[in-house]
């Protein structure tokens, strides 16, 4: 291919990536108005586009967000499947998201009685998410839940205290991303 053809192909890929991002943003909007099934459908469409274009970062995020949505809708098997797919992708392409997804997967495994797996996920995910205050606050809440279920009250309280400090430092309100 000559340079002009390669440029045209690159522009087409960039347009597809933007389309995938827009569809993903629509999923977020549908979720905010409790249209969960529509949000899932849009995330699946966005995921297909990101896989097609090789956009690993967005592929990992969409896959993990699907896992989060499936967890919230109590479709635990689908949640585990998507989170387990997202984590290695995000480990490479977007470690902060990987840390977040590890927190959710840890909570799922703890609820299923797999304490070793849950603790391992928390241990591996915490340094990844700690650089993002709001995400870290959410992670700490999940960590507290895991340790509460494991009857480790002291660690659970420490995690909640850390999350509370983040709320104060970031001036988070009940209407923002991290409300405890």
Number of strands: 0
Quaternary: single chain
Q: What's the average pLDDT?
A: 92
Radius of gyration: 18 Å
Descriptive report:
Helices cover 83% and strands 0% of the residues. With 180 residues, the protein is mostly helical. It starts with a helix and ends in a 10-residue tail after the last helix.
Describe the secondary-structure layout.
Elements lengths: L2 H30 L3 H18 L2 H17 L3 H18 L1 H17 L3 H15 L3 H17 L3 H18 L10
Short synopsis of the structure:
The chain is mainly α and 180 residues long.
List its salient traits.
single chain, 180 residues, mainly alpha, elongated, disordered C terminus
């Amino acid at each position: 291919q000559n340079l002009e053809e390669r440029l045209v192909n690159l522009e087409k890929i960039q347009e597809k990536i933007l389309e995938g991002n827009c569809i993903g943003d629509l999923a977020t909007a549908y979720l905010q108005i409790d249209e969960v099934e529509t949000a899932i459908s849009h995330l699946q469409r966005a995921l297909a586009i990101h896989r097609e274009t090789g956009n690993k970062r967005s592929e990992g995020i969409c896959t993990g967000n699907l896992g989060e949505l499936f967890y919230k809708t109590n479709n635990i098997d689908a949640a585990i499947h998507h989170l387990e797919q997202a984590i290695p992708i995000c480990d490479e392409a977007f470690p902060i998201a990987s840390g977040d997804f590890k927190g959710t997967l840890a909570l799922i495994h703890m609820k299923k009685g797999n304490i070793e797996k849950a603790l391992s996920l928390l241990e591996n995910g915490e340094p990844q998410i700690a650089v993002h205050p709001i995400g870290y606050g959410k992670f700490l809440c999940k960590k507290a839940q895991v340790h509460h279920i494991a009857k480790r009250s002291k660690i659970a309280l420490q995690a909640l205290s850390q999350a509370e400090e983040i709320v104060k430092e970031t001036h988070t309100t009940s209407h923002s991303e991290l409300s405890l």
